[in-house]
């Protein structure tokens, strides 16, 4: 609770300083022309708020890990900070190009992919030199599957895939902040109960606190957006936590909302290219429900509830069934 409270307070205290600063720099969000018309009024809302989340998580993690760990801080904590900061910087570059050029395009897909792969490769290299176990465990069982070098591919796929999936979910006020807080909370519980790792637990709960603090200003109507700075950082961090707790497979369950959002985009693209027809009114999925006439708050609250169900299912599988 103290970890959550510290991260929450840091974010809440930073926001009144940081948001006006972003507004003075005219770092406002450009809205997609093909998006829901109701979003046009959001044009100019300060973005890059993810910087506050990243700063809050890193500061809180270092403070709390130093306070409660009598031994030297393990490489896991620094690895988590590296992933969050690395993907956060990549997202910042993407956001900066968007606001500097006043268009809704940032880094090219190739540039972004190279950056994501580079961070993932460094992450795996550090695991490898520390003789990290290369097996995955089937959720709810004691069955372990040794992947050997295949674990490198899985690690890269998880980091790149999760960062992009979480990024796709960031489209409505409070949607990602709420669903991500729930997912980090679930991993915080599992890091404490199932595979005891105090540093991973502290990092997870720091993310929960930072996201709740961000929600104070990001809930509808949002005064600030996290941008790719926050979404890429959160996605990469979630994947890194799942890997370090040996809960690689359960990430698909706990991050069920992110998986569904990504699948909706994949299905839409495949359907349109092969049949010339769209399955959804618009993808990612949250926009589909908006265009069906749902209010933004109704969509967000529904996705939060679905995220909570997925998180509870993931914890149930690992804690009670196992």
Could you characterize the architecture of this molecule?
By secondary structure, the protein is an all-alpha fold. Helix content is 70%, strand content 2%. The chain is built from twelve helices and two strands, in the order H-H-H-H-E-E-H-H-H-H-H-H-H-H. It has helices at 2-24, 50-68, 75-101, 109-129, 150-169, 175-193, 198-218, 227-244, 250-254, 256-275, 285-291, 296-321; strands spanning 135-137, 144-146. A two-stranded antiparallel sheet has the order 1-2. Strand 1 and strand 2 form a beta hairpin. Helix 1 runs antiparallel to helix 2. The longest helix has 27 residues, at 75-101.
Give the key terms.
mainly alpha, 12 helices
Q: What order do the helices and strands come in, and which of them pair?
A:
Layout (H helix, E strand, L loop, with lengths): L1 H23 L25 H19 L6 H27 L7 H21 L5 E3 L6 E3 L3 H20 L5 H19 L4 H21 L8 H18 L5 H5 L1 H20 L9 H7 L4 H26 L1
Antiparallel strand pairs: 1-2
Spatial strand order of the main sheet: 1-2
The gross shape turns out to be: globular
Low-confidence stretches: none
- Percent range for helical residues? over 70%
Could you give the count of β-strands?
2
On the 0 to 100 scale, the average pLDDT is 89
State the major sheet.
Answer: 2 strands, antiparallel
How much of the sequence is in beta strands? under 5%
Over all CA atoms, what is the radius of gyration? 19 Å
- Quickly give the structural class: mainly alpha
Q: What is the count of DSSP helices, taking H or I runs of 4+ residues?
A: 12
């Amino acid at each position: 609770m103290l970890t959550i409270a510290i991260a929450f307070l840091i974010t809440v205290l930073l926001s009144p300083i940081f948001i006006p600063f972003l507004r003075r720099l005219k770092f406002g969000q450009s809205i997609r022309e093909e998006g829901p018309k109701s979003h046009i009024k959001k044009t100019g809302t300060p973005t890059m708020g993810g910087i506050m989340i990243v700063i809050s998580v890193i500061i809180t993690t270092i403070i709390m890990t130093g306070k409660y760990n009598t031994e030297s801080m393990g490489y896991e904590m620094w690895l988590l900070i590296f992933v969050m900061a690395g993907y956060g910087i990549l997202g910042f570059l993407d956001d900066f190009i968007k606001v500097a050029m006043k268009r809704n395009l940032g880094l090219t897909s190739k540039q972004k992919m190279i950056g994501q792969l580079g961070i993932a490769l460094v992450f795996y290299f550090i695991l490898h030199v520390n003789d990290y176990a290369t097996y995955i465990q089937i959720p709810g069982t004691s069955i372990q599957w040794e992947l050997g070098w295949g674990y490198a591919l899985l690690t890269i796929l998880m980091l790149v895939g999760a960062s992009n999936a979480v990024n796709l979910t960031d489209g409505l006020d409070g949607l990602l902040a709420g669903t991500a807080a729930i997912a980090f909370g679930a991993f915080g519980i599992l890091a404490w109960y199932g595979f005891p790792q105090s540093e991973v637990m502290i990092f997870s709960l720091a993310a929960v606190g930072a996201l709740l603090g961000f929600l104070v200003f990001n809930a509808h109507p949002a005064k600030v957006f996290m941008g790719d700075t926050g979404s890429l950082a959160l996605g990469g961090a979630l994947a890194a936590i799942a890997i370090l707790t040996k809960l690689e497979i359960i990430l698909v369950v706990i991050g069920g909302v992110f998986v569904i959002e990504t699948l909706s985009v994949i299905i839409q693209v495949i359907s349109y290219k092969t049949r010339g027809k769209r399955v959804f009114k618009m993808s990612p999925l949250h926009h589909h429900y908006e265009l069906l006439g749902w209010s933004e708050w109704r969509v967000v609250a529904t996705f939060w509830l679905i995220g909570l169900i997925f998180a509870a299912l993931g914890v149930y599988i690992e804690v009670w069934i196992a």
